What we know:
By secondary structure, the protein is of the alpha+beta class. The chain has seven helices and four strands; from the N terminus they run H-E-E-E-E-H-H-H-H-H-H.
Amino acid sequence: MGKLSATGVRAATRPGLLGDGDGLFLVVGKTGSKSWIVRVQKHGRRRECIEGAAQQSAERARQIREWVEDGLDPVFEKRKAAGIPTFREASKKVVDLHRKTWRNEKHEAQWLRTLEMFAWPTLGDIRVSEITPVILTQSSVRASFQLFRAIGSRL
């Protein structure tokens, strides 16, 4: 549980670090700007991750501590998550890349319609790195064998 109250955070004006507990710190800058950092250490290696608003910081701090306990580097995991697109973003890029090779606009319309109807409702917001064969077979993408093959070839 946090030691700093909302009033204490608002009143903090002197530059420096204020500990909130469990490795969560409020950083007050020279200009009075405020941000949160999570500081964790395991096997003598310290990592600091900059976080945003106070409400989200406590939850993110908990997640970062879990990553460290699992032997993961929180800085690497954060960078990795930021660079991996969702299925919807990646499939739009694929359509854009193939657009020049198609003979007519009908091909693009077919691709987009298939993705919109069958793949994006269940897979659209999932990061590409998290999609597994199990997710594919459990989703509505498997509506029919032929449709599954068509979508699979387009992925």
